[in-house]
Amino acid sequence: MSKKEEEVHVVMVPWLAFGHMIPFLELSIALAKSNIHISFLSTPRNIQRLPKIPPNLSSLIDFIPLPLEYSDHLPENAEATIDIPADKMDDLKIACDLLQRPIKDFIAKKSPNWIIVDFFPHWAIDIGRDLNIPVIINYVFTASAATFFWIPEFLTGYQRRQARQLPEDLMVPPDWIDFPSKVAYTRKNEAIAMHNVFYKVNASGIADGDRLIRLLQASRAVCIRTCAEFESEYVELFAKLAGKPVFP
């Protein structure tokens, strides 16, 4: 077997926000230090604005620029959340969804061992299934936040309607956290905003909670940007509730 055939190759697909892309880049660097080849997919301007990687890892991390298809509603050169006002967020989601085809074409051509995705591209599950490549979801948030929001049975459908009918339901710790916890929103305006983001269908045609449920249900494992020393109880509880391996 050649060295190329033995090499582990991972494709990274972060959401178009620097608060997501930079943690994905940090994970890419950590994996590259273990001699894992990374293909980091994003848009041209976003790649240009990312921090530089260590020179000794440059042969292991490839940045793959994928141009956005701009609509009449998305400003020209807007490729990340930092480039747009809040009322244009749905337009960025629509543009990001249009990357599904070029991303699938790239993955089909390269045949990586794993696809690691953010909360957003629920269609990555279809890509992985069609190409027989396992998908891992990488949360850039803490395990406490993941446990508060992203338990599959409470993201959609009847259970969600019972547990999270109103924004005020986000202002108390959920019942499924079975130890003392203060994780909850304290400002009603923030609770209203997040309730809308997670549970209401937006202009992209799908609620963010529905994106997450597909990824959680079909992904092989979950990575969380945390450590056991910081919040071991939440890591253990999230793994139990998600029903799959969780790697802090």
TrEMBL record:
<dbReference type="InterPro" id="IPR050481">
    <property type="entry name" value="UDP-glycosyltransf_plant"/>
</dbReference>
<dbReference type="GO" id="GO:0035251">
    <property type="term" value="F:UDP-glucosyltransferase activity"/>
</dbReference>
<protein>
    <recommendedName>
        <fullName>Glycosyltransferase N-terminal domain-containing protein</fullName>
    </recommendedName>
</protein>
<keyword id="KW-1133">Transmembrane helix</keyword>
<dbReference type="Pfam" id="PF26168">
    <property type="entry name" value="Glyco_transf_N"/>
</dbReference>
<keyword id="KW-0472">Membrane</keyword>
<feature type="transmembrane region" description="Helical">
    <location>
        <begin position="12"/>
        <end position="32"/>
    </location>
</feature>
<keyword id="KW-0812">Transmembrane</keyword>
<comment type="similarity">
    <text>Belongs to the UDP-glycosyltransferase family.</text>
</comment>
<feature type="domain" description="Glycosyltransferase N-terminal">
    <location>
        <begin position="6"/>
        <end position="185"/>
    </location>
</feature>
<dbReference type="InterPro" id="IPR058980">
    <property type="entry name" value="Glyco_transf_N"/>
</dbReference>
